[in-house]
Amino acid sequence: MRPRVEEVRIQGLGVIDEAVLELSPGFNVVTGETGAGKTMVVTGLGLLFGGRADPSRIRPGADRATIEGTLVIEPVGRVAQQVEDIGGEVDEGELIISRTVSAEGRSRAWLGGRTVPVGTLTYLADDLVAVHGQMDQQRLLQPARQRAALDRYAGNDLVKPLRAYTQAYKRHKQVAAQLEELTTRARERAQEADMLRFGLDEIEKVDPKPGEDVELRGEEERLSHADALRGAATSAHTALLGDPMQTADGGRDVISLLGEARAAVDAVRDFDAELAGMADRLAEAGYLISDVATDLAAYAESVEADPARLAAVQERRALLSGLIRKYGEDSASVLAWAQRSAARLGELEGDDDRIGELGREHEELTVRLTELAAELTKVREAAAERFGRAVTEELTALAMPHARVVVQLTRTADFGPEGVDEVELRMAAHPAAPPLPLNKGASGGELSRVMLAIEVVFAGADPVPTFVFDEVDAGVGGKAAVEIGRRLARLARTAQVIVVTHLPQVAAFADQHLVVEKTSDGSVVRSGVVTLDHEGRVRELSRMLAGMEDSELGRAHAEELLGLAAADR
């Protein structure tokens, strides 16, 4: 199932007060008297798919124009995925798109129930619709679209070389970027390497150890307060055991007092178990105090003022502090910085070798890309020649017998993602005229026919689900008009086609015929867009042919046209 527009609702646009168009999957034509609002149908479709908003198109008296479209799409296809990616919803294969334009020029858009930028509709339209109005034949006027369309027209001949080129191009771009980074930043890299070498050399000279800064800080504290520490330990020892230089009555030490307390309790411990427990605890306290006193004596003996060692510790701490100030929060982080920097320095010192390797690979890839690009150009040139002939033949049948379309390939200076070819469609209006870009070589009516010819040729190679044409038959009639109708019907075999026309020869080929009718006050209301049955088509074609709906001659001619179209299917 290919995507298609199922229904379009238009409110407040031009002469249209309100109109609903129910569209078939095939060839739809919209007809009506001059000024009935047929072109507003194309304008509405253009707005629905992101076209430029023009406040002057809003119906007088209305504060805004609203266009809503119901599309049938693949529930798990690419378009559905794009809608879901932005938070919209697709309900059982139906997608609702809405656009409003205020009289002040403000525009809002909704996609699957979600407010989106108008540009999102334009992006989505690339996969859904090609709108060709008198002033907005945009799709195939874009150079990138022209190259992409030509590539699809070239078919399988281009697939393999283009895939090989794309892979080589991506690698070539990566290598070029790496070379650029390495060569343009040579000075910065050299400065970085010098800084790293200086830091690593500085750290190597000091040779810090993990936790060394903490250990030295403690040692400096002890050495700086050696006398105070030794005096405190000695005083504490004396308080616990007493001063051996004093007489027995010289002082009361802790051990003596504990001994007296223990002796007093031991004398009566057998009379009460609770008191006996206290006596044991006094004994334990005595042993503990003796141990502490012994340790204090040993500590006091070990603590000595050492000015030389203190100076050495302070000097070492100064060196470590200098490193910590530059490279980390402590000695461990300084060592971690040194490890990382050594690895980075190894990378920087290996850049010269890397530059050489990348340079050789870049040269090889350049040669390979040149060969692949030439192969792409050869395939495109062959496809361009076939395409030009096919479109020119179509134009001959579309009342432009002297027109000629060519595809001009221009080589770019640099490699691009798709090769070195710039593709431009050009048209010569007559044999003596030089081929010019499409938007310069054809008038508005001619450009519509050129677009039709191109779309017919590209129908199998550049598939678009829905095509919209406004006045594609401008300036032609008779046999040429029949051929336009025939080619639109041919295009409708692979896509939905919506055409606004004033030619009965074109309208006769439609699968569904819609007529726009104005009310007495000149507006188009909801009932003003009618889907015609066979009898209705005969009457409308008769009006278009003879200016009279009930003309016998007109009706006979209308029946003849419908028969011709039916036979052609």
Describe the overall structure:
The chain is an alpha/beta fold and 569 residues long. Among the domains are: 1-128 and 464-568, Rossmann fold, CATH 3.40.50; 212-329, no CATH class. Helices cover 55% and strands 17% of the residues. The chain has 19 helices and 15 strands. It has a 6-stranded antiparallel β-sheet. The chain has a 6-stranded mixed β-sheet with strand order 8-12-13-3-14-15, sandwiched between helices. A hairpin with a 2-residue loop joins β1 (4-13) and β2 (16-22). The longest helix has 47 residues, at 351-397. The model has no long low-confidence stretch (mean pLDDT 85).
Summary tags:
six-stranded antiparallel beta sheet; Rossmann fold; alpha/beta; 15 strands; 569 residues
Shape: elongated
Under the CATH scheme, the architecture of the domain at 1-128 and 464-568 is 3-Layer(aba) Sandwich
* Percentage of residues in DSSP E strands: 15-25%
- What is the CATH superfamily label of the domain at 1-128 and 464-568? P-loop containing nucleotide triphosphate hydrolases
Secondary structure category: alpha/beta
- Looking at the structure, the CATH topology of the domain at 1-128 and 464-568 is Rossmann fold
- Estimated helix fraction: 55-70%
Q: Low-confidence parts, pLDDT < 50 over ≥5 residues? A: none
Kindly state the mean pLDDT as a whole number?
85
Q: What is the tally of beta strands?
A: 15
Physical arrangement of strands within the biggest beta sheet: 2-1-4-5-6-7
Radius of gyration: 47 Å
Give the helix tally: 19
Q: What is the CATH first-level class name of the domain at 1-128 and 464-568?
A: Alpha Beta
Task: Measure the end-to-end span.
Answer: 21 Å
